[in-house]
Every structure is written in structure tokens, then in C-alpha cells.
Amino acid sequence: MNSQVNPPFTSSKQASEPMTALIAEGGGQRGIFTAGVLDAWLDAQFDPFDLFIGTSAGSQNLTSFLARQKGYAKRLIRGLSRHKRFYQLGRGLVGGHVVDLDWYFEKTTRGSFALDFDTASKTLGQRQLLITATSARDRQGYFLSPSDDNNHWRELLKASSALPFLYKQGVKLTPWLSSDAANQSAEQTPALQEDFFLDGGLAAPLPVREAYQRGARKIVVIRTVNADFQAQSAWVHKLKSWICVSGYCPKTIDYLVQHEQAYQEELAFMANPPADVEIVQIFADDTLQSKLLGSTDADLRQDYRTGIAAGNAFLQRGNEEKVAPVAFNVQHGNIIQPQALSA
């Protein structure tokens, strides 16, 4: 595993400027759009962020971005997430995991799918990465900081991606979970260590408010839905169709309702943010072809190219206007600019 740290990336941030956060939404295989955005930024050596928050596939994308592994997330999504071993609906009907996250993350320990946590940790430095996960006990969202233990970091990524029904009861983070890692008080740690954790998108699908509460006043959000999204996520519709033949409807539907409520609250915050915060959203085009699972390789390649174009357009617009990049939505190659982010 390569532990060499790349040269410092370009940043126009001055000491007097406010904290800047990058948030990566989940979305399963649709995260290949995010992978394209971040790979474009790796090419440009663009990384001015102080705080990173990732949910589900978004946390994996942010980790590979910090590891400076251009193309890694694309290979992972196109390779492992489309492998017949990864997703088998029939396993869920006989008590197994529909999605084999154990196999998936074990593959990230070696070979061409090895994730360079050492470089990611050194690149992160004194900045902060938070990986969202939902406690199966209290259904609250937790923002977990990885330690220098590579296995701990990998387990956090697994927990953040563990959808109910698809990965059964979730991931137990003992013995790694501490009050520092969980960003909670020491008194809460014993209970947390007994918890199983599920996909962070259930309780914190779009943690913009969390970034704001932690002091970020410039927040960049990479979305995996179109700009007009207001109703249920695509994965919610798909998951409901799977669940209803399984006998697990009641409990899992509660999770889905919680997800929808949390999502709407974040959308409301972004629609009417406090006066002292600037929020930039990079949207996937509404013609994005990929899905939660079951995408074709052609669809994934197309959406990755769309992400590359979005990442480059973000940087280009910032250079042209001599300010931080603006919010935009890529639609058939055009840029829509709902809000400028001043320097």
C-alpha cells in the first residue's frame, strides 16, 4: 500500500476565511457521478476543504479522494458492485444478506481494489472526516471519525453503507468505537459500543445542518439526484418493492419514513439557510442513468463522464469569475447557476 503523501493541493483559502465543508451524498451506484466530480478535482489538485462529511457511497468516495486514488471509486463501482457475488436478491429470502458487504470490503484490502488508508490519513492531516451511520438501537444519526486503524476506517465505511434488509442487522463497531470516534460523551460510549450501525442515509441523508453546526460557513454538496428532487429517493421506491415480499415490511418501512423526514428537513434548511452560510450544490443531471443497484456498465460510464464534466465546469466557472465556484446543475452540457458563492 502506497503511503507517500502527494504535494499539497491547490487552495485559495486564507487564514481569515471561514471553514469550508464538502458533503458527499449517498445513492449506491449513482455515486459514480460523485466519483467523476472528485476525479476532476484530483486532476486539478483542488482540495480547499476543512471538513468532509460522507454518507454511504459518499463516504467511500471521500475516502478515495483523500487517498488521492484517481479512478478508484469508478473501478470499485463498475467492478465490485456489479459482481454477481455482491448482490443477490435470493439470499435475502433465505435469511442471508442481499448485499454482501463483507466480501465487498474484504476486497479493498489487497490487489487492484486496495484502498490506501495510510495516504488518506496523512492527506487528511488536521482536518476532519466524518462518516455518518445510524444506530439500530435509537435510530439516531452518528458522525464517526476514523482512527489510524485501517480496519476501523473500513468498518465505518461498511456501517455507513449497510441498508436494512439488504444487510440485515447492521455492523457492530466494537472494539473500535470510542467517545472520540463517535463524537459523543464518555457516558454514552458503553451503550454505543453495543449498538449495530446501519446506513447513515437513514438518519443523516444530507448532513448540511451538521456541517453548519460544526462551524462551516461555506458548504459544497455533491448530490446524486436532480435539482428538482423533492419526493422519495429512487432507492426508497426500489427498496419498498423488495421488502414487501419478504415479511420485513413494518420495521424497515419505519426506517424509510425516518429517511424521508430527515431528507425533507435538510432540503428545507438549504432552501432557507441562515444569512451567514453559503451553500453550493453540484447536482447530477436528471438524465443520470445509473441506479441504486443493477446499473449497466454503459450507464455507469456515462454518469462518470457526466461527473467529470460537472467537476471541471465547477472549477472553470470559479476561475472565470475570480471567486469560489458557483452552484450549478449539469443538464445536457449546460450550466444553470442558481446561486453564486462569493470569495
From TrEMBL:
Motif (GXSXG): 54-58
Name the UniProt record assigns to this protein: Patatin family protein
Active-site feature positions: 56 (nucleophile), 199 (proton acceptor)
InterPro entries, per database record: Acyl_Trfase/lysoPLipase, DUF6363, NTE, PNPLA_dom, YjjU-like
Domain (PNPLA) ranges: 22-212
Chain ranges for the short sequence motif GXGXXG as given in the UniProt record: 26-31
CDD domains the record matches: Pat_hypo_Ecoli_yjju_like
Keywords: Hydrolase, Lipid degradation, Lipid metabolism
Annotated organism of origin: Shewanella phaeophyticola
Motif DGA/G positions after renumbering to this chain: 199-201
